[in-house]
Amino acid sequence: MRKITLYIAMSLDGFVAGTQDELDWLIQFPNPEQTDYGYAAFLETIDTILMGYRTYEVVLGLEETFPYANLTNYVFTRSTSRGQAPYVSFVTEDWRTFVENLKQQPGKGIWLIGGGQLNAAFLNEKLIDELIVHVMPVVLGSGISLFEGLTKEHTLQLTSTKSYHNGVLELRYHL
Fold this sequence. Notes:
With 175 residues, this protein is an alpha/beta fold. The chain has one domain (4-23, 35-174): Dihydrofolate Reductase, subunit A, CATH 3.40.430. It has helices spanning 39-43, 53-62, 95-104, 116-124; strands at residues 4-11, 15-17, 46-52, 72-76, 88-91, 109-114, 130-136, 144-145, 157-163, 169-174. The chain is globular.
């Protein structure tokens, strides 16, 4: 069975984006070693990406071309009138059944990018196998929570930690 990993960065106060989906805070502090925090190595382990529609819109605005064109991409949306878009398939059906079927298919790992509402839904349904979170040394005060709207308690098992010289902390959990 394929594994779903939530690989994400968040502020020290638990936000994955600012109130207007801004991400500039991710690069505002020094990174003299130019580390990618294991991002390239992680990308080698996956072949499928899952994201919510708002996150998809943010990803589209980050670069001139879609950054994950070489991967299979699914965008979850409540709208049934999205049509088609390059490099992605929109999922409007019963998302839990879709994900359970996807996990049964052959392939590499699956990356859950977010956003916060989708992260919470996956966590509530016990569909996240691993969480790799990079805690950035910044406090936003408000924004999009890592698990937006989560109402149930979940216990995670810490498997490893790594600290970087610029204050970033990587935490790995199994669920």
